[in-house]
Amino acid sequence: MKNNKYRGVAAALLLCLLSIAQGLHAQRQDILLNNNWQFRFSHQVQFDTRRVDLPHTWNAQDALAGKTDYKRGIGNYEKSLYVRPEWKGKRPFLRFEGVNSVADVFVNRKHIGEHRGGYAAFIFEITDEVKYGAKNSILVRANNGEQLDVMPLVGDFNFYGGIYRDVHLMITDATCISPLDYASPGVYLVQESVTPEEAKVCTKVNLSNKGAEGDVELRLRVTEGSKTVYEDSRTVTLAQGADLQEELPFSIKKPHLWDGREDPFMYQVTVSLHKDGKQIDSVQQPLELRFYHTDPDQGFFLNGKHLALHGVCRHQDRAEIGNALRPQHHEEDVALMLEMGVNATRLAHYHQATAMYDLMDKYGIVTWAEIPFVGPGGYADKGFVDQASFRANGKQQLIELIRQNYNRQAICFWGLFNELKEVGDNPVEYIKELNVLAKQEDPTRPTASASNQGGNLNFITDNIAWNRYDGWYGSTPKILGQFLDATHKKYPQIRIGISEYGAGASIYHQQDSLKQTVPISWWHPEN
After folding, report:
1. Of 124, 168, 175, 169, residue with least CA distance to 281
2. Dihedral angle sign, alpha carbons of residues 395, 59, 136, 21
3. Are 83 and 93 in contact, with CB atoms under 8 Å apart?
4. I need a surface site. Which of 186, 199, 282, 440 has the fewest CB within 10 A?
């Protein structure tokens, strides 16, 4: 009797484990492909390779040593990938979080696609390109050479070359929530209206079917911790080869609002697909409910309350490793912000890592996210070349920024440019086109830009801020306030702010006297 009892328990446990295994097998898989790449420059012979692990940049030493002609060219990354036989009939994708700045991807030495732009994520489906039950070659040719049709053209930051963020192998069912819409999650949580009394949200889901025609059940679940606050489902008929978008609207009474640093509360939204009673795909996204506006006279208001924004601009590099940051580096940067009392940040001047946007949501930091449309600053060349390919690339990068980060509600402003000039090729009409595109992609958020001069370009985006270095590039710090007062008096209808200010400072440069230095010199005393 005792043995029979134990056999029954063992059988039940085995059935449970098999059920779990089947459930896991049905889910999408996300496999990190960061380890064991072979790297060489394009001018090197085939056997002159070395192993690297990602994230990686080949400019971690030369660019950070102040070498202005640091290596800019093509680096080759190659990896052997075993594609399991049981993945036949599923859909494998390669997702790159960031390759600077042009990436050409090959599977078994066959070119499958190119991505132009060094900061946004991108994805390629490789279902029909790989050999199942065999090793496959993945080759990425990364090029950080100067390109006149890829943003940014100039900038006072390093254009590091390499695969400097994570690479993922994603495996989905033949029918899935599509990751192919500019590498977005395929789920968009559109906040149609939010008040303390009620939040109305429309969930838009991109579906893709490479399997046979049939019905799937689309489910939506909104949770607050372990508590379910809303759920819904519907049956969708998908033809073979179908790509379509379904909408699932919902509302929450008396919503718990995301309230910045004071209360960065998040719901979780899970969208799942079910077929023949089994879950075949699932995507989870954060939902932060909030409402806000900027008043020309009184400033920024979050959830009906005035919030004075105190922030920093943040670049994605540091000593010894360049821009090949790990999660702990993003966390350290945000910890410094929190210690400073920061409640807002401008992620300058480009799309930043997924981990960084996650931290903005988590800690309640009001965020300005922008595309790398960067003007010359102290450089002689322009940030805008009026040619069709450049215009198309800028619009592509704006769409990527918005669609990939649509659900990150810490982002309150889409930034369109930094320090452009109207001389020569005039960017004003193109900025207007970008502003219209941003509104088409996301009617719920305002646009912003950072300027360092006068001109018509200051009157296009919903908010305009200035990069002012009064007291560093001449004048005195008190001029800043005078400039802002005069600007507000002259243009009382526009929403103005400060996007950059400060001075050069080095801990290695110290002097007893406090006096203005020469900004273009090598001497930048800390005091």
Report:
1. 175
2. negative
3. no
4. 440
Q: Tell me the whole-structure pTM to 2 decimals.
A: 0.94
Could you tell me the two tokens for 262? 């004071």
Whether residue 429 lies in the annotated active site: no
Q: What is residue 525's DSSP assignment?
A: B
Tell how strand 50-52 and strand 37-41 pair up: antiparallel
334 token code pair: 């945000």
Tens of pLDDT, residue by residue, the chain (527 residues): 445 544 544 444 444 444 444 444 458 999 999 999 999 999 888 778 999 999 999 999 999 998 889 999 999 999 999 999 999 999 999 999 999 999 999 999 999 999 999 999 999 999 999 999 999 999 999 999 999 999 999 998 999 999 999 999 999 999 999 999 999 999 999 999 999 999 999 999 999 999 999 999 999 999 999 999 999 999 999 999 999 999 999 999 999 999 999 999 999 999 999 999 999 999 999 999 999 999 999 999 999 999 999 999 999 999 999 999 999 999 999 999 999 999 999 999 999 999 999 999 999 999 999 999 999 877 788 999 999 999 999 999 999 999 999 999 999 999 999 999 999 999 999 999 999 999 999 999 999 999 999 999 999 999 999 999 998 988 888 999 999 999 999 999 999 999 999 888 899 999 988 888 888 888 999 88
